[in-house]
Amino acid sequence: MIEVILLERIERLGSMGQVVKVKPGFARNFLLPKQKALRATKSNLELFEKQRAEMEAKNAAKRAEAEVVAAKIDGIKVVIIRQASEMGMLFGSVTARDVIEAAKEAGHVLDRHMIQIDTPIKMLGLFPVKAKLHPEVVVKITVNVARSPEEARMQAEKGAALIKAAEAEAAAEAEAAMVEAIGTQAPVEAVVEGEEEAPKKAKKTKAKKTEEAAE
C-alpha cells in the first residue's frame, strides 16, 4: 500500500486533501495519471497546503456549475430502442455511448465519461444509471430499453418491463394448472392403490387359512 493525497473526492475513498492508503496498481493506473491524487511525499504535502485554498475555490465553482445541470437532468428518463429475443434478451448490451445518444435526443448534452453503468444492461426494461457531473454531484437517469416506442411508453406507464410481467403471469397460470391437475389425480391414485392392496390382503388371508388347515 502507498499513501496519496486526494485532489478531489473519490467515491468510497475520501475527499479532497485527505491522505489515504491505496494499492500501488490503483495509484499508478488511475489516480496519478488522471491527476486525481499526488504521492504523499513531504514536498507534495507542502505544495498542496500552499495551493489548497485555490484548489478548493476552483472545485467549488465546478461543483456549482454541475449542480445547475443536475437540477435539469436529475431523474430524467431516456428511451433506447433495441432488438431483443422473445424472452427479452438484447442482442448485445446497452453502453454508456447509447445512453449519451438517447440523452442528446432528449435535449441533454452529457459526456460519455460521466455515465456509470454498474450492472450490464442486457434485458428489456427500466434501469437506473448514474451520471457523475462532478466528483460531488451525481444524479440518476432511468434508461427505458424497449423494442418499439409503443412498448417503451407502456413500460414507462407500468414502471416495469412488459416481458417480465408476461412471464410472471404465464408462470402463475402454469402453477394453477398444475395444482388443479394434482387435485384431480389424487383421488384416482388413492382408488388404484386401494384396489392394488385388496388382492394382496386376500392372498395373505388365503395363505394363512391354508397353513392353519395343514396344522
Task: Write up this protein.
- The chain has 215 residues and is an alpha+beta fold.
- It has two domains: 2-71, Ribosomal protein L9, N-terminal domain (Ribosomal Protein L9, domain 1, 3-Layer(aba) Sandwich), CATH 3.40.5.10; 77-160, Ribosomal protein L9, C-terminal domain (Ribosomal Protein L9, domain 2, Roll).
- 53% of the residues lie in helices and 22% in strands.
- The protein contains five helices and nine strands, in the order ββαβαββαββββαα.
- The strands form three sheets. A four-stranded mixed beta sheet has the order 4-9-8-6, sandwiched between helices. A three-stranded antiparallel beta sheet has the order 2-1-3.
- A hairpin with a 2-residue loop joins β8 and β9.
- The model is unreliable at 186-198 (pLDDT under 50).
Main features:
Ribosomal Protein L9, domain 1, elongated, alpha+beta, 5 helices, Ribosomal Protein L9, domain 2, four-stranded mixed beta sheet
SS-derived structural category: alpha+beta
- pLDDT under 50 segments (min length 5)? 186-198
The biggest sheet, with number of strands, parallel, antiparallel or mixed sense and barrel status, is: 4 strands, mixed
Give the end-to-end Cα distance, rounded to a whole number of Å: 94 Å
General shape: elongated
Secondary-structure element order, N to C: EEHEHEEHEEEEHH
Side by side, the strands of the main sheet go 4-9-8-6
CATH evolutionary superfamily of the largest domain:
Ribosomal protein L9, C-terminal domain
Mean pLDDT: 82
Instruction: Summarize the amount of helix as a percent range.
Output: 40-55%
Total tally of structural domains: 2
Radius of gyration: 33 Å
Q: What is the tally of helical segments? A: 5
The CATH topology of the largest domain is Ribosomal Protein L9, domain 2
Number of strands: 9
Quaternary status: single chain
Please identify, by name, the CATH architecture of the largest domain: Roll
Strand content: 15-25%
